Amino acid sequence: MAGSQHRISVVGTGYVGLTTGACLARLGHRVTCVDIDAEKIASIEAGRMPIYEEGLAEIVQSGQLSGRLTFTTDLIGSVKGAEFVFLCLPTPADEDGFADLTAIRKVAQELRGNLDPGCVLVNKSTVPVNSARMISELLGSDDIAVVSNPEFLREGSAVQDFLNPDRIVVGADSPIAGEKVGALYLGARCPVLVTDPVSAESIKYMANAFLAMKISFVNQAAEFCDAVGANVIEVMKGLGFDPRIGATFLSPGPGWGGSCFPKDTRALVASARAVDRPMTMIEEAIRSNEIHIDRTAALILDAAGKTGKSHPKIGLLGLTFKSNTDDTRESPALAVIRRLVGHSVELVAFDPLATTVSIDGMTRVRSIDDALREADVAAILTEWPVFAELKPHDFSGLMHGKTIVDARYLLDSESFANAGFRVISIGR
Ligand code: UGA
Question: Which of 123, 172, 215, 374 has the smallest count of CB within 10 Å of its CB?
């Protein structure tokens, strides 16, 4: 590995930046992570991670101990002598759905004239097509190659995904710079696709849009199964044996969400309309996701209505957008709960990691038992393993009612039926 370790600056310590920096240090590179948020940097240096991400704290700590991973708020200082500068900056949706590139523009302007000749600027932020070109213009130097290197990290398994990628995509006008970036991922046993920047930027959007569309399809299939009496879980199992479809990412749920799919699908839709090639399938995937969230909420309200009580209590399990993360951004669980607020119901919710979120009209409690106690209806909204392990006796001693809406298809409905419970899921 000698000679293959490089000096790298990673700008932005969100979940992508921090994971990227720590993992690059794990691969042997000398990495400085930089962020404008001094409090965040101090906290990371002291071993407190800004987000929950499995294995991240450990890998950050080992990087610090090895001396290969350092943190700073000094952007210009961090890029002195750097051979590669990674941009891992937020690109939130603006009011028209387009990705807001303010943070990227600002950093690129600050870096102008401050990068060493030959330095490669690697953009990992999810950005619209042609952003590499825009960054290059802002940097204003022919000596600096700008390379697009989208990330495919899933929250909750970002460290694993970084260290065992299924592919590395590099978009570069200069093939040499592209090869150099691909070579940073030491030991990765996966295809490395070196292509042009516009194609690399498109791959990221298309991948997320395709995955979101897949879940919208699965959830619509669940609604069809519901109407005709089929079991969506069996149906998806049957589909999954076909390698052209694949057995993963076929779980029905309350709808898709998170910090990426909603933002990226909206950005792709906006970009596609802007070039007069509307991606109507993605528009429909977004629309049907909203309808599916409505249906999930309606199912819970219907179960609450059937209790005959004037103000039934609903015990809600799960607030994060998926399990193994503390992230509630655009969480379908919260979207469902917001649709329940204002109806004549009492809402009590528990989540293992979302311990700060608050919604007017909902009380957050500290345990599953507290959420289920005296509940007339229970609803599972996030697929936490601890919810999948629940047995009928965990509910029966606490709940008043006998109805559980299982929006994540976790419970074995037969054993619950034998214990006198009705487990309801769309299409099962
Ligand atoms: C997603 C992509 O999967 C990553 O490849 C990508 O790098 C990342 O966005 C990003 O752009 O940074 P993530 O947002 O962490 O990752 O979440 P996913 O695991 O993809 O789940 C997204 C949503 O779909 C969640 O609400 C999840 O519950 C839902 N989902 C997923 C289902 O309802 N069913 C499934 O079978 C899978």
Answer: 374
Q: Is the CB of 5 inside a 6 Å radius of any atom of ligand 1?
A: no
Q: What is the per-residue pLDDT across 254-308, written as a single tens digit (0 to 9) for each?
A: 999 999 999 999 999 999 999 999 999 999 999 999 999 999 999 999 999 999 9
Atom 3, ligand 1: residue with shortest CA distance: 154
Quick one: which of 172, 166, 156 has its CA closest to 188? Answer: 166
Q: How far apart are CA 305 and CA 424, in angstroms?
A: 14
CA angle at 392 for the pair 407 and 399, rounded to the nearest 5°: 80
pTM over 0.85: yes
Q: Give dist(CA 305, CA 299) in Å, integer.
A: 10
**Cβ count within 10 A of residue 373:** 16
Residue nearest to atom 34 of ligand 1 (CA): 251
Model confidence pLDDT, tens digit, residues 59-92: 999 999 999 999 999 999 999 999 999 999 999 8
Q: What percent of the chain has pLDDT over 70?
A: 99
Tokens of 72: 């700073």
Angle at 259 between CA 273 and CA 316, to 5 degrees: 125
Say if ligand 1 is within 6 A of residue 251 CB. Answer: yes
Asked if residue 146 lies in contact with residue 104, where contact means CB atoms within 8 angstroms, the answer is no
- Residue 194's SS3 state is strand
Alpha carbon distance 373, 33 (integer Å): 46
In terms of Cα–Cα distance, which of 338, 350, 346 is closest to 375?
346
How many alpha carbons fall within 13 Å on the CB side of residue 402?
A: 7
Residue range 178-216, pLDDT digits in tens: 999 999 999 899 999 999 999 999 999 999 999 999 999
For a pocket test of ligand 1, which of 54, 205, 261 has the largest count of ligand atoms closer than 8 A to its C-beta? Answer: 261
Contact 98, 131 (CB under 8 A): no
Element (H, E) at 86: strand 84-87
Could you tell me if the CB of 211 is within 6 A of ligand 1? yes
Find the 253 Cα to ligand 1 centroid distance in Å: 12
pLDDT value at residue 3: 65
Pocket of ligand 1 contains residue 167 by CB under 6 Å: no
Q: Which of 11, 155, 125, 28 is nearest to 71 (CA)?
A: 11
Euclidean distance between CA atoms 397 and 292, whole angstroms: 32
Q: Which residues are catalytic?
A: 260
The answer to whether the CB of 145 falls within 8 A of the CB of 174 is yes
Strand 168-172 with 145-148, pairing = antiparallel
